[in-house]
Design goal:
This protein has three helices and seven strands. The longest helix is centred in the first third of the chain and has 26 residues. The termini are far apart. The chain folds into two domains: 65 residues, Helix Hairpins (Orthogonal Bundle), CATH 1.10.287; 69 residues, Transcription elongation factor, GreA/GreB, C-terminal domain (Chitinase A, domain 3, Roll), CATH 3.10.50. β6 and β7 form a beta hairpin. 32% of the residues lie in helices and 24% in strands.
């Protein structure tokens, strides 16, 4: 049918489904046991939300267009989440790690740069578990990439803006 015979009001914009944190092409979807549990809890919550929307629709508490849009968003989020869960590889360590790796928590001090003397502690986790407010960074983050493989006492250079920050590893733990 020609577009000339379609009302402008009939053109509904598809709902926006926010993308998950990016996982670079070719990268394995590493997760900690905690991260996997968080993904599973998120799945359960989305499934509960979907059941609630369906039940509300059956009880006519919301109109069909609103319910349909809500279900599209929930189902889209579930599809993205299901893909992440299906590709997740849980990484667990035994013993005390000698070097910085996925799943470890690192304490380091800025040795050079504008943050000189500042001590930070952060955990290297999967992309879905990363949360800077909780001091959890994705293993794909630049700071994680320069720290991975380092040992206590090692130095790592991190470019922040136009300045090189030199980081000294003080402690590595699980």
């Amino acid at each position: 049918m020609s577009r000339g015979f379609v009302k402008e009001d009939d053109q509904e914009e598809p709902p926006f489904i926010p993308p998950r944190a990016p996982l670079p092409a070719g990268m394995v979807n590493l997760v900690t046991a905690r991260g996997y549990d968080l993904l599973d809890r998120e799945r359960l919550e989305l499934e509960r939300e979907r059941r609630s929307v369906i039940e509300q629709g059956e009880a006519s508490e919301i109109n069909d267009d609103d319910r349909r849009r809500q279900l599209i968003v929930i189902n889209g989020k579930l599809d993205q989440l299901s893909e992440r869960i299906a590709t997740a590889q849980i990484v667990q360590h035994e013993g005390t790690p000698d070097d910085v790796r996925f799943g470890t928590t690192i304490t380091f001090r800025h040795e050079r740069g504008s943050k000189k003397g500042t001590i930070f502690r952060l955990a290297i986790v999967g992309v879905d578990e990363a949360n800077i407010k909780e001091s959890r960074v994705a293993f794909t983050a630049p700071i994680a990439r320069v720290l991975i493989g380092k040992r206590v006492g090692d130095l790592a250079d991190l470019m922040l803006g136009n300045e090189v920050q030199q980081l000294k590893i003080l402690k590595i733990e699980l």
